[in-house]
Every structure is written in structure tokens, then in C-alpha cells.
Amino acid sequence: MRTAQCSEDPNGSSFNRTKVPNPSSANPHFFTVDVEEYFQVKALESVVAPDDWLSQPTRVGRSVDILLATLARHNARGTFFVLGWLAKHRPEVITAIASAGHEVASHGFGHQAVTALSPGRFREDVRSSKRILEDLTGQPVLGYRAPNFSIVPGCEWAFDVLIEEDYSYDSSLFPIRRRGYGYPTAPRKPYVMHRRAGALAEFPLATTSFLRLAVPAAGGGYLRQFPLAVIRRAFRESAGRGESATFYIHPWEVDPEQPRLPVSAFNRVRHYRGLATALSRIEALLAEFRFDCISSFLPATATRSAPPETAGVA
Fold it and tell me: How many domains does the chain have?
């Protein structure tokens, strides 16, 4: 696998997969950011269509600056999964991320769910976003995260496309059972999947368990809606197992002054609740745990062997 500075499956067959070698308990967790404007999210898609994006006031630059300053205060690095659309229309945001020493990875081009794309359109999406980000930063783009974690059972063909398009890892699988997204049978730790097209490292989102049920605890809306103790528990459990957990956040989640758009009561709670306290919660996690970018761990997946794990993410 390259390093940077910083089909049978829907029928129930298994992936062949190998565990990523466990980092030591002193190794950092992964701080990731899904870089998108506040109006590009699923909760607001009923009131802001993609054709209207350029007419909306941009706020992502200020929010990214806040996150960059926060990470710098805690001597932490992160992986920023960036939309190709932003690289085209707000290139200064992406160059600021790269200049600060963080990893730039792909979030696709136009924030379309994998479930809404054919394999051909998905290939075009991940290829175009990779190209524009690499041209802008001068660094290889190794990682991908699907909008809305939309690689779900039945969409495993997406992994083959990512391998063929020269991606080294994915971070799209959320090992939970939830309406809209989730891959409940996916492993909860980083691992390497072996596909027809080759090998791809997977960095799933952090979870914890209550009464044997997987509970999402990776950040984002769960950071804003759940008690912070749930997130802390997941990261302490991962550290206790000698594993690195993956956290995520969006820039708009540290922007409590963003415009309020007329959406349903459910989506108002989903999108706006907890915005005022999200940054202080991020600060608390950064003070307690060490974080780095995902690509910092990729050399371990390429140079160290690991015993095979039981098969099956069916």
C-alpha cells in the first residue's frame, strides 16, 4: 500500500479478511472529519437541492479553521474526508487542511449515497474526487468514506471499485443496525478485506455495547445527542483491547450560528440539537485521548502479517 505524509456478497457469501495488526495501547485513535457545508447533509436535502448549493452562504471555511486550531492546540492530526465539490468551489479550504499537516481523503464528489449510484457512476464519482483532491494538494489520496456511511449489505461491489481506482483503505462501515445505514455484521476493529480486485483496509466507526447490542459511539450526531460518557466508553474499551477507534465530526457541528432552515421537527432535532456544546465535547476527548490520521497506521497493514480471522461479513 502507498503511504502519505500524514457480487457474491449480496447472496450471503463471506469476505476473506485479515485483522490489521493491533496497535499498542499507547497508539492513537483516529480523528476524522467529513468536510461538507451545512446545507449538503441528508437532514436538509428536502429544502436545499444540489442545484441550489452555490446560492447558499458558505460557512465551511470558518468551521474548518476552528477544527484546525483545536487539533493544533492538542498536538493532534486528523483525516479530512473532503467532497470533490468543495475542492472545486472552495479550494482554499482544502489547501488549508493540507498545509496544516493533516491527511486529505475522499468523501466522493457530490455527496451522493452509494446506494443511489450504479457501479459505473460510483467509479466516476470516486475517480473524479480523487483526481481533483490530488491535483490540489499534491499528495496521494489513499482513503474514502461514503456519504452517510452508505456502503451497506448489497453494495460490496463498491470495495472492488475502490481497489481498482487505487484507494488503499475505506472508512464507510458502521457496524450497527440502524434504519438508513449500517453494516451490523462488520467487524468492530480495523482489518484488511481480501476481495476479487485485491486488498483494502477497512477502518470502521467506533461502537460500544449495551446488553449485547452494538451502540454507535463514533461522534457526529451521537456526540451531540448522547451523553459524552458513551463516546468515552467506546474509546476506553478500544484502548483496553489494544485497538484504535475511529471518531468523526462535521465542520457544521461546531457552528451553532449556522442558518436555521425550515425542516421537520425530527430533522431540526437531528441537525441542530447539541451544536452549542459539540466543540467543548471534542476538546474533552482530545484532552483525554491521543489522535492521529488514518494513513499514519497504513504501513502496519502493509508490512506486518496477521493470522486469518473467521470469515463473514455477509
Answer: 1
Q: What is the mean pLDDT of the chain?
A: 87
**Which CATH number goes with the domain that contains 178?**
3.20.20.370
In a domain, 4, yes or no: no
Bridge partners of 246?
A: 30
CA dihedral 253, 83, 108, 47 (to 10 degrees): 60
Given a cut of 80, whether residue 151 has pLDDT beyond it is yes
**pLDDT at residue 25 is higher than 70:** no
**CA atoms 244, 250, 251, 256: torsion sign:** negative
Task: Establish if 247 belongs to a structural domain.
Answer: yes
The span from the CA of 4 to the CA of 240, in Å, is 28
b/e per residue, 81-111, with b = 16+ CB within 10 A? bbbbbbbeebeebbebbbebebbbbbbbbbb
